[in-house]
Amino acid sequence: MRLHLVDGTFELFRAHYSKRPEQPLKATLGMTQSLLALLANPAEQVTHLAVAFDNPIRSFRNDLFPEYKSDEGVPPELRSQFDAAEEATRAVGAVVWSMREFEADDALATAAARFAGQVDQVRILTPDKDLGQCLEADHIVQVDVIRKRVVNEQALLDRRGVKPESIPDLLALIGDDADGIPGLSGFGERTASALLGRFGHLENIPFDARSWPDSVRGADRLARTLRERLADVFLYRELATLRRDVPLRESFEDLRYRGPNDQRVRELLLLDAPTTGSPAPDPSLSR
Fold first, then answer.
1. Cβ atoms within 10 A of the Cβ of 221, count?
2. What's the pLDDT tens digit per position in 215-227?
3. In sequence order, which residues have a C-beta less than 8 Å from that of residue 212 and are 6 or more positions away?
4. What is the value of pTM for the model shown?
5. Beta strand residue intervals within the chain, DSSP E
6. In the chain, which stretches have pLDDT less than 70?
7. What is the strand order of the sheet 48-54 is part of?
């Protein structure tokens, strides 16, 4: 059995900014067709499925840091489709988690932790860097639908130089533009990876730059920045740390995929063809 956890907000934005012809419900239509393609793909072997949305794009993190990402700047024609996208996803037959106090990523992280022991594999469909903290060997993996690759724990280590548990620390140092986390000036990914690859977490990094890896350039200056901005970087790590205590009501059995409501999907999206005519699957996303 496999549990597929989909970042619905990402899929909705991806469809909105795609090259598809402009039309009413463009984002909702594109997102729904992507879900149907996933379900039609025999290589994915979907048995259990849930999709999480930010609705609105605001969470408890905005109370901690006002500059954190929000609905500000979201095109009105896209923002107006948030509810329709959730309704269409339910019609496809997926469980929907509509997040308000928490974020969609928190729901995905909670579900991955809660249900991993009941499936052969958890597949988290999003390219977001913060979900890397959830990876576990080949058991919990991330599917990057943009770059068409599957990232397991070893691939994360090879690419970013850190283990999953250090991802929040990494994002705290280098920042994350997608979430509005500024990071610390001067800390690029290479420097942050070298430090966290050796020390693991922020609190273990010594202020004495002589203890830092030789590969870090400008170590004295960066150590001074870290010491002066320590409170800030700990806050940034809190923002980047996904919660695993979201009160999801569904049981594992509730996530079992039982098929779409074809008629309701066509009504919502004004489709003439049956949903079984969804786009051909992309085999490059399979393991």
1. 12
2. 999 999 999 999 9
3. 194, 195, 198, 205, 206, 219, 223
4. 0.92
5. 2-7, 48-54, 95-99, 121-125, 140-144, 149-151
6. 269-287
7. 95-99, 48-54, 2-7, 121-125, 140-144, 149-151
